[in-house]
Each structure stands twice: as structure tokens, then as C-alpha cells.
Design a protein that fits this description.
The structure is a single chain. Strand 4 (47-66) and strand 5 form a beta hairpin. Helices cover 4% and strands 46% of the residues. Strands 1, 2, 3, 4, 5, 6 and 7 form a seven-stranded antiparallel β-sheet that branches. The chain has one helix and seven strands; from the N terminus they run E-E-H-E-E-E-E-E. By secondary structure, the protein is mainly β. The chain has one helix spanning 22-25; strands at residues 3-4, 11-14, 39-40, 47-66, 73-76, 82-90, 101-111. It is globular and about 40 Å long.
Length: 113
């Protein structure tokens, strides 16, 4: 059964933060379970989120709640290899200013045996 692979030991990095204001728009807000906070990238092409897990995992789903989407978008992943890092690339944005805004992010799957 797939469950969240994120834990306190999961390390995250992002390409940028709007105006470098991590107190208001930092990466931690993707994982705080608060629907009023978000990670907001700065302008620019190809924004990304990188996650490093404490153990090897097999990812089966990616759940993202973007700005303007009141329900999360789920991306199933077929035949995923065992990994210890995941990098999500946002190649383009629907935001007029070229920003990526994520209210919540979860990675589902199983720990590798």
C-alpha cells in the first residue's frame, strides 16, 4: 500500500524563492499542511523541487496542489525505479509572471527493501 514517503529526515531544495523571502514563501510551506501557505518561486524558466530521502524508495504517485487549484493534482508513476532522490522540474508556468506556486506537495510510494 502506497503511503507518504516524506518524513522529518527528508531533505528538500528548491530552485528559487520569490524575492528570497523564505519567511513568507519558503519551501517548508509545501509540507506544513496549511492551505493558506505556499512555496512561491521567483520568476524564471525551469523551476524545480528536489527531495532526498533517508532511505531508498519506489515512488508511485506525486500529489501537488498548485495556486488556483483547490484540489490536488495527482500524477501516477508507472514502473518507477528504486531511488533516493527525486527532482521535479516545472518547465513552464501558467502564472503571468513565470512563477511556480505550490501549496502542498506529497510523494507516495513504498520504502525499498
Amino acid at each position: 500500500m502506497a503511503s507518504s514517503l516524506l518524513c522529518s529526515e527528508t531533505q528538500s531544495r528548491v530552485s528559487s524563492v520569490l524575492n528570497r523571502d523564505v519567511k513568507q514563501y519558503g519551501k517548508k510551506y509545501m509540507f506544513d499542511c496549511n492551505e493558506e501557505t505556499c512555496w512561491n518561486s521567483d520568476q524564471g524558466e525551469c523551476q524545480w523541487v528536489s527531495l532526498e530521502f533517508p532511505n531508498s524508495v519506489r515512488v508511485s504517485e506525486l500529489k501537488v496542489q498548485f495556486q488556483g487549484g483547490f484540489s490536488a493534482k495527482t500524477f501516477p508513476i508507472q514502473e518507477a525505479p528504486v531511488v533516493d532522490k527525486v527532482k521535479i522540474m516545472f518547465e513552464n508556468s501558467a502564472d503571468f509572471f513565470g512563477r511556480i506556486i505550490v501549496y502542498s506537495l506529497d510523494i507516495l510510494g513504498e520504502k525499498a527493501s
